[in-house]
Amino acid sequence: MQKRRVFIALAAVAGLAGWYLFRPERVFIDATVNERFPSDQIARSDSGGGAAGVLATGQFHGVAHDAKGTATVHQLADGKRVLRLTDFETSNGPDVQVYLVAAPDARDNATVTNAGFVHVAPLKGNIGNQNYDLPANVDLATYRAVTIWCRRFGVNFATAPLLTTTPLAAATEDLERVARMR
């Protein structure tokens, strides 16, 4: 009888630990976020207050999970850079993070881990519109993709390759693409 109680207690502890690690309910429960964009910062730039605008943008594609939406890096009038995910949607999961990856795209897990990445923040929701402040020292010429990464399982859910929107940067990217084709 005593062995049975110990077995039941161990099974309960193992079950709770398994639930905590895998969080299976998140497969069925979406987290929707709809944050406003700090448009007052953009409006001030239009009146000559600062150099604001879109620095880079890209469309999400699924890697381990289906995904859709747009990732856009904005420069605000106060100099701050914000990553905005719009019309974003992917699967939910445990310990999902937003990374900037030092690669033009990440279509697998190895690219993220081998190329290197900057941790931006935990993903706020797997559906909706959301804003993330970017570290001031992040070089967008190096970190050219946004990845949604499950830290718990080391899995790349989705990636958005970023294309810069300044004329000089766009011309440089075009030249690099042509050189790679040769």
List descriptors.
182 residues; alpha+beta; six-stranded mixed β-sheet; 4 helices
Q: What does this protein structure show overall?
A:
- By secondary structure, the chain is of the alpha+beta class.
- The longest helix is centred in the first third of the chain and has 21 residues.
- About 4% of the residues have low confidence.
Q: What is the topological layout?
A:
Layout: H1 2-22, E1 32-34, H2 39-46, E2 53-59, E3 61-62, E4 67-75, E5 81-90, E6 96-101, H3 109-115, E7 117-122, E8 127-133, E9 145-150, E10 155-161, E11 163-164, H4 167-181
Parallel strand pairs: 1-8
Antiparallel strand pairs: 2-4, 2-11, 3-10, 4-5, 5-8, 6-7, 6-9, 9-10
> Looking at the structure, what is the overall shape?
elongated
The CA-CA distance between the termini, in Å, is 75 Å
> What's the tally of helices?
4
Q: What is the tally of beta strands?
A: 11
Helix content: 25-40%
* Mean pLDDT across every amino acid position: 83
Question: What is this entry, summarized?
Answer:
This protein has 182 residues and is an alpha+beta fold. It is built from four helices and eleven strands; from the N terminus they run αβαβββββαβββββα. The longest helix is centred in the N-terminal third of the chain and has 21 residues, at 2-22.
